[in-house]
Amino acid sequence: MFQEEYRLLEQQELATLELRGICRFRQSLKKQNARLKVQLVSYLDVVFPEYHTLFSDVHGKGAYAVLCEFNSPEIIAKVNITRLENILKIASRGHFGRAKAEQLRALAKVSVGNKNNDKSFQIKHTVAQIRLIESQLKDTENHLTKLWKNIDTVLKTIPRIGVIDGAMIYSEIGDITRFRKPDQLIAFAGLDPATKQSGNFRAESTRMSKRGSPFLRYALVNAAWNVSMNNATFGEYYNLKLAEKGRHYKALGHVAGKLTRVIFAMLKNNMAFDLP
After folding, report:
1. Among candidate residues 172, 274, 266, 152, the one with its CA nearest the CA of residue 215
2. Which pLDDT tens digit goes with each residue over 114-158?
3. Which of 20, 225, 239, 253 has the smallest number of CB atoms closer than 10 Å to its CB?
């Protein structure tokens, strides 16, 4: 009997570790993707600064499809209009067509961008990198969803918890017996108030300390916003703190702290979310 219980605990721990690893890998991909998108915009500002004016989202599929084929205004200005139209139409699923292609080519002809060959080269390959990472993100999230389906936890009863936030909270907390009281879990998440000390003076800031797991904090804050929009108790608490603090993120930090206390009780007692 003891051996069977030990085996089940070992399997649970391995499943938690795998889930945590995939969650953290996803966060790493998201950071890489965000950094590459900032780089791409900086390259476009040099080579083709007018490009942004033609697309409401410069990171959209249509905008990327053009940049993969033609990475400078000089090339776009000379390209066959039908070819440009087809690229835009296919990538945007018919949202862009002939008119957009003509606007883009006309703008390319009068662009004030610099003829910077190395930046043009980097534009093409940065877009390719972004596309690759977005493909990896999709695959990672699909794998994460499969892993989460096999996890049996009361956290799934929290309103609108979501796969990503739920999996991250569950895997980052791990064994709840590591924490004797909710304040320890709050501190581990970095949601406890920062303390400032100078000589004999000691004061608490309303800012989060951010000393603990950034992954857990990220997921708790996301979950707190979803819960406050879908649960009356948390919605009222958010509005109360917003009135007191005057800022969305400060209020959300308090909601995340309250949610953490609820999660602590749920996991300790293996009970479902039951707040009205």
Report:
1. 172
2. 887 899 999 999 999 999 999 999 999 999 999 999 999 999 999
3. 239
At 3, is the pLDDT very low, low, confident or very high (cuts 50, 70, 90)? low
pLDDT digits (tens, 9 = 90+) for 75-84: 999 999 999 9
Distance between CA atoms of residues 272 and 220, nearest Å: 17
Distance CA 236, CA 142 (A): 34
Q: Among 5, 262, 226, 233, which residue's Cα sits nearest to residue 154?
A: 262
> Structurally, what CATH architecture does the domain formed by 2-149 represent?
Orthogonal Bundle (1.10)
Task: Give the CA distances from residue 254 to residues 2, 212, 213, 247, 250, in Å, rounded to whole numbers and listed in that order.
Answer: 42, 16, 17, 11, 7
- Going by C-alpha positions, the residue among 45, 191, 175 that lies closest to residue 119 is 45
Burial of 2 (0-12, 13-18, 19+ CB in 10 A): exposed
- Axis crossing angle, helix 214-230 with helix 248-269, rounded to the nearest 10: 100
193 forms bridges with which residues in the sheet?
Answer: 208
- The pLDDT value recorded for residue 197 is 42
Can you list the alpha helix ranges (DSSP code H) found in 92-213? 98-109, 117-149, 163-173, 182-188
pTM: 0.86
Residue ranges of the chain assigned to CATH 1.10.287.4070: 2-149
Give just the sign of the alpha carbon dihedral 103, 104, 105, 111. Answer: positive
pLDDT, one tens digit per residue, over 186-226 is 999 999 775 444 444 344 444 565 677 899 999 999 999 99
In the structure encoding, which two tokens stand for residue 189, read together?
């998440």
The vertex-274 CA angle with 268 and 276, nearest 5°, equals 145
d(CA 172, CA 184): 14
In the chain the first and final C-alpha atoms are separated, in Å, by 40
